[in-house]
Design brief:
416 residues; Rossmann fold; 6-stranded parallel sheet; 6-stranded mixed sheet; 15 helices
Length: 416
């Protein structure tokens, strides 16, 4: 029987026989990227010397390790358990190592979350700090980009003797792919440069930036990585909770090789569809993360079509949800008008744009086991109890011959 078996247990299975033109897409099972180990990647870095050689050559006395937060699947605890001893062998004791959490605009992590993610031993022996993009007193200007836009980063990064960034790399709507110098911006940067680059990305057509390795926003991000003197990165390509490949070395070379390999491995032809059902997995901690799935769906949704967003969002909506709820999500043209007339904060506008491009002519249904129906409605979205309810609504609206595409694990699918 033709069925859709969701990645989410709480969604269950959906019978697709009532929908004759429906196809389920998911990440390829046999990825043509060789597995390797962290040890192997560290011995053969891209574009620079081995980490240990760099530390000894520079005679470093202290170090900053920038780590991604709980919203990412990077196995930080396992990586740090291997990396911290390398620093110690090079004469940098744990008490002179600071872990700076690259929150970007995400919420701060709790002490318990830090211990679970980075390891109790590492958290106990190293200093661990949540980055705050709104704390101007702890931000330092390191130069300008573009038309003179100032770049501010966390003062710990600006004054560090040596900076190692640890994160993941995957397709990204605003910068092409994550990874590389993205650990600096938005990771540990000030809100103004974050909003500048995000707005630049969101006002660029999806097909010209999503999963495009070389693009204007990424070029600026790479420039900021150079300004910040990012010394070395460890990026991982993940398949759910498992590492497919470790990429180590200079941030530019790591990004270049990883992004092009991922583009080749995960691109899937998906036709323009009347309805796109899409799972936010694994970026589904909150709606700020789940918006990534809406962006992917938008690329293959016909004008006037519908997106069915399947997501869990245990952390709710967004750090600025009270502000978002005042208007709910708006059509893209209205978002741009309000941002440009200073009637909508640019950072909120960036988040709104993800939904606005679909809402300009279409609609968005939401299937979630955590978000409240009244909040979904207040955000100008349509709450449904299950995928079938949304599909039946679209059949009534547009007819039984509609083309439906279902995208599983959207974080690992590049629609082409």
């Amino acid at each position: 029987m033709n069925r859709y078996d969701s990645t989410y247990d709480w969604v269950g299975s959906v019978d697709l026989t009532p929908y004759p033109d429906c196809t389920v897409y998911e990440p390829p099972h046999d990825v043509p990227i060789e597995n390797n180990t962290l040890r192997e990647a560290l011995k053969n870095p891209l574009g620079t010397k081995a980490l240990e050689d760099l530390l000894l050559e520079r005679n470093v006395c202290s170090a900053l390790i920038i780590v991604d937060d709980i919203a990412r699947p990077t196995p930080q605890k396992e990586i740090l358990s291997h990396i911290v001893p390398i620093f110690e062998r090079c004469g940098i004791p744990a008490e002179r190592i600071t872990l700076l959490i690259a929150l970007g605009l995400h919420r701060p992590m709790t002490q318990t979350e830090m211990e679970q993610r980075y390891g109790i031993d590492v958290v106990k022996r190293c200093r661990v700090v949540n980055h705050d993009p709104y704390d101007d007193a702890n931000l330092v200007n390191i130069g300008t980009i573009g038309n003179g836009q100032p770049v501010t980063i966390n003062s710990l990064a600006a004054s560090a003797e040596f900076i190692l960034g640890i994160g993941q790399i995957a397709p990204h709507r605003v910068v092409g792919f994550s990874g590389g110098a993205k650990i600096i911006v938005p990771g540990v940067s000030g809100k103004d440069i974050v909003s500048y680059l995000h707005w630049m990305g969101w006002t660029t057509d999806s097909r010209k930036i999503f999963a495009i390795p070389d693009n204007p926003v990424r070029n600026e991000v790479n420039r900021i990585g150079d300004l910040a003197k990012l010394d070395f990165v460890i990026n991982v390509l993940m398949e759910e909770t498992e590492v497919v490949h470790y990429y180590c070395g200079h941030h530019r070379q790591v990004y270049e090789q990883a992004s092009r390999q991922i583009l080749e491995a995960y691109s899937i032809p998906i036709p323009q569809s009347d309805v796109v059902v899409i799972e936010a997995f694994p970026y589904d901690l909150d709606m700020q993360q789940a918006a990534k799935a809406v962006c992917s769906a938008e690329m293959v949704t016909k004008n006037g079509g519908a997106v069915v967003l399947v997501t869990t969002c245990p952390d709710g909506w967004h750090v600025n949800f009270p502000s978002l709820k005042k208007t709910g999500y708006l059509p893209y043209s209205e978002v741009v008008t309000r941002v440009e007339s200073n009637r909508l904060d640019k950072l909120i506008g960036c988040h709104f744009a993800a939904f606005g491009r679909v809402l300009e002519t279409g609609r968005i249904y939401v299937v979630s086991n955590h978000l409240k129906d009244e909040d979904i409605t207040a955000m100008n979205l349509i709450p449904v109890q299950n995928v079938s309810e949304a599909l039946e609504a679209e059949v009534r609206r547009k007819g039984s011959d509609i083309k439906i595409s279902i995208i599983k694990k959207s974080g690992k699918v590049i629609p082409k």
